[in-house]
Amino acid sequence: MSFRSLIQEMRDEFGSISRHSLRSRSHRGGGGAPRVAAVGPAEAAAMQQSCWAQLPPELLREVLVRIEESEAWWPSRRDVVACAGVCRSWRGITKEIVRVPEASGKLTFPISLKQPGPRDGTLKCFIRRNRTTQTYYLYIGLTEALADDGKFLLAARKCRKPTCTDYLISLDMSDMSKGSNTYIGKLRSNFLGTKFTVYDAHPPYDGAVVSKSRSARVVGLNQVSPRVPAGNYPVSHISYELNVLGARGPRRMNCIMDSIPASAVQEGGKAPTQTEFPLSGLDSFPSISFFRSKSARIDSATSQLSTQKEEKLVLKNKSPRWHEQLQCWCLNFRGRVTVASVKNFQLVASDENGPTNQEQDKVILQFGKIGKDLFTMDYRYPISAFQSFAICLSSFDTKIACE
């Protein structure tokens, strides 16, 4: 039996269990709005009696290792996610086998979007903008083309307020409200659109302090299924300097990564790595139902972020050069950007402690236009897809003092 046939058989059996449990709940629940319920004893017993749950651990590990190695890219990589949803033993072994993006260069589970990108190479993504609905969608490319069908990663919705603008970021493209179970963070701007703050809904490292805000959701003690409230943990501050050169001058951008130490870009440096989502309403989201834990766990090597004592990582846009023949500012995007735009940028680490304020050569994040409402976004270690997406969203916002 091929691995693909094995996965298909496993899906059919697991699907029959799920359909049986849904019918049981529908008969018990009667009318009214649908509710998310925990797995009952009958469903749990059926899952435990499944032949897939009774495989010897050595054989199971060998099977899962081969599946993980053979299904390297999306959409076939969804088979790896399906394996993690079979039962507890499959989930545990799959999570041990699948490496973080820093080492593998692959995005597998939703938590991968909160983990730093690869050290060697970049993850090539693109953003689609919908002007009518003021929404933005992040995809990872499936081919070497600038844009293809892509695998959906994140969505954001622009919300205007009297004194600021919020971009709410979600794992679900159909529900981007802050009350959603799949809300994971936001970007907030000041009135002029020159300063932005990226907030993570979950603690980015052990000991992170939540920002005092009215928008923090409080959970009542009398709730049947209490959730960890989505907080506002500042992870980055973005600022755009006044453009003294007028319309011909490029924007000047500065990002202070509150959750990443400056040493992360050095050889052997480490950035905080979230390993699980907290116990929350994310349990009702099918693709991440197996990320349930009593608390958010952080990589033990960086559990106590040293940015309280150590300097924070600072990113600045790479200085473009003026092209005399083309009469425009130019940056080498290595074929990933095709349309000139004031929004285009490349971010590099800046050594502010050095005597000459020397810029680094390695591009950590680049963003550029390739169509009317289509943009590429390539990122690498030590920032994550979530942080990169939020930084790129800041470029879309209107900047009264910079244009």
Describe it.
This protein is of the alpha+beta class and 403 residues long. Among the domains are: 51-98; 123-206 and 230-272 and 309-395, Tubby Protein, Chain A (Alpha-Beta Barrel), CATH 3.20.90.10. It contains seven helices and 14 strands. It has helices spanning 3-29, 41-49, 57-70, 78-84, 88-97, 101-104, 385-396; strands spanning 123-130, 135-140, 151-160, 165-170, 183-189, 195-200, 233-241, 252-261, 312-317, 321-323, 328-330, 345-350, 359-371, 374-379. A twelve-stranded antiparallel β-barrel has the order 1-2-3-4-5-6-7-8-9-12-13-14. Strand 10 and strand 11 (328-330) form a beta hairpin. The longest helix has 27 residues, at 3-29. The radius of gyration is 23 Å and the shape is globular. The termini are far apart. The relative contact order is 0.13. It comes from Oryza glumipatula. It holds the Pfam family Tub. Residues 113-398 form the Tubby C-terminal domain. Belongs to the TUB family. This is Tubby C-terminal domain-containing protein.
